[in-house]
Amino acid sequence: MVDIINSKIWDIKELSQAIKNTIENSFEYIKIKGEISKPSFPSSGHVYFSLKDESSLINATIWKWSLSNIGLMPEEGLEVICSGRLTTYPGRSSYQINVSKIEHAGEGALLKQLEERKKNFFSKGYFNEDLKKPLPLFPECIGVITSIKGSVIEDIIETIQGRWPCKVIIYSVPVQGSIAAKKISEAVEYFNNIERNEIIKPDVLIIARGGGSVEDLWAFNEEIIVKAVFASSLPVISAIGHETDTTLIDYVSDIRAPTPTKAAVIVTPNKDDIKIKIKDYLKRIKLSIFNKIEEKKATILFHNKNFDKVENFLSFPNQRLDLRVNEKNNLINSLLSNKELNYLSLKSKVGSPDNIFYKIDRKIEKILYETSNLIDKKINSNWLNFFQLYKNISPKTIISLIDFYNKDINIHYSRIQTNLQNKIFIHEEKVNSLLRLLHNKNLSNLFDKGFVYLENEYGEKISELKKISPNQTVNLKFQDGKAKAKIFDIKLNKV
Fold first, then answer.
1. How far is CA 202 from CA 170, 206, 268, in A?
2. Largest Cα–Cα distance in the chain?
3. Which CATH code, of 3.90.380.10, 2.130.10.10, 3.40.50.2300, 1.20.272.10, is assigned to 112-269?
């Protein structure tokens, strides 16, 4: 029996310190399994909660400087394994664990929590199929969010380059651990916030990771990632783990790929298949064009058998017109070739140059008028034939043919008119030259006989005495020069 009388008497402070030393020395670093209860997050930055089982409870603390490496944030009802140091609080004679790491207690607990989160996100509409965005058919740039250290990125790039060579922008992130969810969500937001004028903006995103346990893939079940993918304006393909692995990001993404390699296949078309399709389309187009040409050829041949070409109606008037033009040209050349005629004879027969051009214009007008009448007669004579053929030929065909040959007639008429105008101009110059020559020759003969040429002060010819007045100054033109004279007296011949 313990001798109570001789036992040591402890004061409270001394006893509390002794208990503290005993506990902390006996339990340096331990792991405790339990269910998280009543977690709190005060403004100090520290986290406080309790761990409990069926019959017991222990307090737990996470200091704010340990949060970055904690691994898993405490949630109500979550079964976990907490690692840390056991310590006491002498002021209340209580003990607690200072937690440095939190892990899931088992796969069963994780799956239970996963199912609860899935129901929660589903109720919020994060998994609504109507909100899924379509993938681009021919992406110019693909953004890949994954770890640069893994083999996943090599498989993705190799597959993309083999199927549809395009630009690939890689955003390296941790795909496991306490900060993985935050970094991945930041990567999604980064690609969505890129301005088009800064760098190339991806057309689609791939979030990829290799296989692993439920614990390894847990970052892809965090709410922060689910919200980031849901808010993304760019379509997102999830490629997490193997085909049997499922995370919450698979439900919120626009497309779920069973593997990262399969994601690269889904997002890119096969250039070889496209080449085959293009060749097939070209073959069909060529065949269609050939068939259309053959069809048009058959139609033209059919119409040629039942319809005289418009050229046949116009050939005779065109020939008549050419003959008349040649006749007129010969006539003009004949008139101009007789250079031996003197001025008076030429004037009496031909008249003034204005009369020549007037007669030529009248002749041309007559030719054009006769030509027009011939064309009208020919068209009128064949009107019944046109009317009969109209029943067998579409109006569009007749109109197009008439427009075509009208254009041809106008072109020929324009050419004829231009040719006539050019020849008239040439002959006009020849006639004027000849008239000037004859005129000058005639004046020289008159000068030799002692005649002078009289002009008024304005250079106008004076042929009658009544056209001058006393004291008027006139110009006298001799063969070798000019002189001025003043009129003093005028005597008219008595009739």
1. 10, 10, 13
2. 196
3. 3.40.50.2300
Q: Is 81 within 8 Å of 104 (Cβ atoms)? A: yes
CATH class for the region spanning 12-105: mainly beta
More confident residue, 378 or 30: 30
Asked whether the beta carbons of 95 and 56 are under 8 A apart, the reply is no
Tokens of 253: 């993404």
**Residue with structure tokens 């051009």?**
357
**How confident is the model at residue 35, as a pLDDT?**
86
Are 44 and 80 within 8 A, CB to CB? no
What does the alpha-carbon distance between residue 466 and residue 468 come to, in Å, rounded to a whole number? 6
Going from the C-alpha of 118 to that of each of 203, 211, 239, 250, 425, the distances in angstroms are: 28, 21, 18, 11, 99
User: Do residues 121 and 226 lie in contact, with contact meaning Cβ atoms separated by under 8 Å?
Assistant: yes
Q: 3-class SS at 31?
A: strand
- Please compute Rg for the chain using Cα positions: 57
Range of weakest confidence among 187-201, 375-389, 405-419, 453-467: 375-389
Q: Give burial (CB, 10 Å; 0-12/13-18/19+) of 464.
A: exposed
The answer to whether residue 204 scores a pLDDT higher than 70 is yes
pTM: 0.46
50 and 37 Cβ atoms separated by less than 8 Å:
yes
Residue 93 tokens, joined: 């004679």
Domain ranges in the chain are 12-105, 112-269, 307-434, 453-486
Of 392 and 222, the one with more pLDDT: 222
132: left (phi over 0), alpha (psi -120 to 50) or beta: beta
* DSSP states along 386-436: HHHHHTTS-HHHHHHHHHHHHHHHHHHHHHHHHHHHHHHHHHHHHHHHHHH
104 φ/ψ angles, rounded to the nearest 5 degrees: -70, 140
Q: Cα angle at 416 between 410 and 422, to 5 degrees?
A: 135
Rounded Cα–Cα distance for residues 445 and 382 (Å)? 64
How many Cβ atoms from other residues are within 10 Å of residue 491's Cβ? Answer: 6
Is pLDDT at 32 greater than 60 in this prediction? yes
